[in-house]
Each structure stands twice: as structure tokens, then as C-alpha cells.
Amino acid sequence: MKYQKEVNDLLKELFYESWFDENDWNEYLNELLLATNNSLEGLSNDIQTGIDNGYTLEFQLNLLRNILKYEK
């Protein structure tokens, strides 16, 4: 995945809780992705599609951030 780090960082920024340990975070992330019918690879591919269509990585991450905040 080309944008795995960026997607992981964004999801942690939005959803990580200070009391999570690594197992808690991985379980939460898996459930989040399952509930939203997404995957890390799918999100990374969607970002690449946006970039291929002329949008910057920063724009794509801000768009994803705004969508996920709204859904939260």
C-alpha cells in the first residue's frame, strides 16, 4: 500500500484513545473498518485515485479527515 502510513496516522489522529494498548487499537481499527465497509488498502487506493485525478495528497487526506470526523 502506497499510503499506508498516511492512512494509519490519520485514523490514529481521529480515533486513538490514550488508554488503548496496541491490541486495543488493532481491534478497534479492525472493527471500525469492518463497520464502515472499508480497508486500509481500499482507503490507500482511493487516495491514489484522487491523486491520479489531479488532487494532492494533502487535499485527499483533508477530505478523508472531514468525512471521517462527520461520520464519527
Notes on the structure:
With 72 residues, this protein is mainly alpha-helical. It is 75% helix and 0% strand. It is built from 4 helices and no strands. Helix 1 (4-15) packs across helix 3 (40-52). The longest helix has 15 residues, at 57-71. The two termini are 25 Å apart. The relative contact order is 0.19. The model has no long low-confidence stretch (mean pLDDT 92).
Features:
75% helix, 72 residues, elongated, mainly alpha, single chain
State the gist of this model.
By secondary structure, this protein is mainly α.
Secondary-structure element order, as H and E?
Answer: HHHH
Helix segment count?
4
Low-confidence segments:
none
Q: Please tell me the overall pLDDT.
A: 92
Binned, the helix content reads over 70%
Structural class: mainly alpha
Distance between the termini: 25 Å
Strand count, sense and barrel status of the largest sheet are: none
Overall radius of gyration: 12 Å
Strand proportion, as a percent range, falls in: under 5%
Write the layout of secondary structure elements.
Blueprint: H1 4-15, H2 22-35, H3 40-52, H4 57-71
